[in-house]
Specification:
D-Maltodextrin-Binding Protein, domain 2; Fructose-1,6-Bisphosphatase, Chain A, domain 1; 3 domains; single chain; seven-stranded antiparallel β-sheet; Alpha-D-Glucose-1,6-Bisphosphate, Chain A, domain 4; eight-stranded mixed β-sheet
Length: 423
């Protein structure tokens, strides 16, 4: 591991990623369209096949043997901590729904991240006989052919790619997305990794994924960027932790974001309302791991949030439940789904619902709560909470103000729980 890490150029990681991809291709093709393929449903109702698990297990074995200080962050096995700030990020089969139905658009996504920066990535689609790779500063390639994004500069000439539009499997669509489709020359529903690779190759200009995890993003993002494009969250953040992804040829990125950067929609009296987001952050003299742990540990939640009960299934798609008041006659019960669970950096609670003894809120809302953990320049750990979905409506003003007071009290509870008074 130390020999690999000592190399200055990111390309040093590509042979290892290609080796893992070669083995993954063999496993995937052996099980693809196999009548005996074993498939199960995860907590979020998404499928996981024996191929997903076999590929990720193989990758973890290779990393343990070839780069033992590196961690692994995978869709199926979660996080194995790194000893030196380096980790493999893997989606063993991106497009599992395609894979189990016999659709040949699936691939293995592999990326190396070092100290929070993705250095290299490989996207391998064996049933398409295609593979893409990139290393930071070294360009992007489809096989041995260098690829570049297109130079199309008008939305009216752009090809826009997307995945499932039903909202059932890939999250809610941005409210203004139909406007982007209407402005484009052509739209096509390729979905998953493939649409982003088409953008990188210059076959299209915009690709949209409303619901993404870091392992879905890391490899495709660096390929698009090294091909000269841009890949960000819908809010324009250059991160693998944004929860969604838009890739473009770069020229049209700002134009695409105008149709995508909107908070979760809310309704009041049956009509759509613009929303606002409450943000609060504070610094703690604790490690990021310790701060992150209190967000998903039930015993900690009960203490710092004053809950009488808490249940957490700590994984993407897992359940989050908290109850206040007595166990037999609770005052409030809140439930949510962990739409993002990326230790020790980010947790997002979506599909939020709340039942209170005092009655329902006087407005409809689609709340989303995001916790992020990062290290400040002074070495302290910053915990940030952003709660989106409050309608810009007078009926929600009192609740918005209460949210501000509530989060300040909550952070005070976190400080007490961590056992220190900090300035």
């Amino acid at each position: 591991m130390s020999k690999i890490r000592s190399q200055k150029h990111a390309t040093v990681w590509l042979p290892l990623l290609h080796e893992i991809a070669d083995r993954a291709d063999g496993i995937a093709l052996r099980l693809f369209r196999d009548a005996g393929l074993r498939v199960e449903s995860k907590a979020d109702d998404s499928p996981v096949s024996e191929a997903d698990r076999a590929i990720e297990a193989m990758a973890r074995e290779v990393i343990a043997a070839r780069a033992p200080e590196a961690g692994v962050f995978g869709e199926e096995g979660g996080e194995t901590p790194s000893g030196d700030g380096t980790r493999l990020i893997i989606d063993p089969i991106d497009g599992t729904r395609n894979f189990v139905r016999g659709v040949p658009v699936f691939g293995t996504l592999l990326a190396i991240e070092q100290d929070g920066v993705v250095l290299a990535g490989v996207v391998s689609a064996p049933a398409l006989r295609a593979r893409w790779h990139a290393a930071r500063g070294a360009g992007a390639f489809a096989g041995a052919r260098r690829i570049r994004v297109s130079t199309v500069s008008e939305l009216s000439r752009a090809h826009v790619f997307h995945g499932d539009l039903s909202g059932r499997t890939e999250g809610p669509r941005p409210v203004r997305l139909p406007g982007l489709f209407a402005a484009a020359e052509r739209t096509r529903g390729f979905g998953d990794f493939y649409q982003h690779m088409l953008v990188a190759e210059g076959a299209g200009e915009v690709a949209i994924d409303p619901k993404m995890q870091p392992w879905d993003i890391a490899a495709v993002k660096i390929v698009v960027e090294e091909a000269g494009g841009r890949a960000t969250s819908f809010a324009g953040e250059a991160t693998i932790h944004g929860g969604n992804l838009v890739s473009t040829n770069g020229v049209l990125h700002a134009a695409a974001l105008e149709f995508l950067d909107s908070p979760p929609p809310s309704r009041q009296h049956g009509r759509m309302c613009p929303t606002r987001t409450h943000v609060h952050e504070e610094a703690f003299d604790e490690t990021p791991e310790n701060v992150f742990a209190i967000l998903h540990t039930p015993s900690a939640i009960r203490k710092w949030w004053g809950a009488s009960r808490a249940i957490v299934v700590p994984r993407a798609g897992g359940l989050w439940v908290a109850q206040w008041g007595s166990e037999d006659e609770p005052d409030t019960i809140a439930t949510a789904t962990l739409t993002v669970f990326d230790p020790p950096r980010r947790v997002v609670l979506g599909s939020y619902s709340c039942v209170a003894k005092s009655g329902p809120m006087p407005f409809e809302a689609n709340f989303e709560t995001e916790f992020t953990v990062r290290i400040a320049k002074d070495g302290r750990t910053i915990l940030r909470v952003a709660q989106a979905g409050f309608p810009l409506d007078p009926a929600a003003d009192e609740f918005y103000a209460a949210c501000d007071r509530g989060w300040r009290a909550t952070f005070a509870g976190i400080r007490r729980y961590l056992g220190r008074e900090q300035t």
